[in-house]
């Protein structure tokens, strides 16, 4: 299996990508969505999916992945609306005390699924700053299809986003970073929207 991933500034675009992946025949069990900018009211997982609760209450659900969206916290990212295999492995790694740097948490989950570690850091930081991540584990013969669907919904350009972060001295995702406030998230989204790389 290979992993195809996209980061979106718009939560609605990410949800549309998830639905399109499912419509194309990719199993919901092989798709993940993790985002800071979803609305808590979207959760269908109930109070049992609150921060600190077991992931079992968050993932899965009949009718597709999006029906299983729930709230939880990921170290270094903060509270997210999420569902899928990536969340289960990221929080499972934390619960198993494997977290810390690339060995666990969201970075470890992505890299163990085949995502380049440098890219995983940008994806995780992007979610921390208000983006929404969609990731699909697919068979080799589905890679191009999954990539086409994810790209059709116009994800952020990872190299441009990496450059934006590095211009401010960012070196990589840090699980010990403080959660961003709603005001800080709004500023990050505006900055990302208006960003132009330095010449």
Automatic annotation (TrEMBL):
Identify the Pfam families for this entry: YflT
Annotated ranges, domain General stress protein 17M-like: 5-69
What name appears for this protein in its UniProt entry? Answer: General stress protein 17M-like domain-containing protein
- The species this protein belongs to is Phyllobacterium trifolii
| InterPro entries linked to this entry | GSP17M-like_dom, Low_temp-induced_all0457
């Amino acid at each position: 299996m290979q992993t195809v991933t996209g980061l979106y500034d718009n939560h609605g675009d990410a949800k549309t990508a998830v639905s399109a992946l499912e419509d194309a025949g990719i199993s919901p069990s092989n798709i993940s969505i993790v985002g800071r900018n979803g609305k808590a009211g979207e959760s269908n997982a109930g109070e049992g999916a609150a921060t600190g609760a077991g992931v079992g209450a968050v993932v899965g659900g009949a009718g597709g992945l999006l029906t299983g969206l729930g709230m939880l916290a990921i170290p270094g990212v903060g509270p997210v609306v999420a569902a899928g295999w990536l969340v289960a492995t990221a929080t499972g790694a934390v619960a198993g005390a494997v977290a810390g740097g690339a060995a666990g948490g969201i970075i470890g989950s992505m890299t163990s699924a085949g995502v380049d570690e440098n890219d995983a850091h940008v994806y995780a930081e992007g979610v921390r700053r208000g983006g929404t991540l969609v990731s699909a584990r697919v068979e080799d013969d589905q890679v191009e299809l999954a990539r086409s669907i994810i790209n059709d919904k116009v994800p952020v350009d990872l190299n441009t986003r990496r450059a934006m972060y590095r211009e401010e001295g960012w070196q990589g995702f840090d699980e010990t970073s403080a959660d961003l406030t709603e005001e800080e998230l709004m500023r990050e989204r505006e900055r990302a929207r208006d960003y132009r790389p330095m010449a």
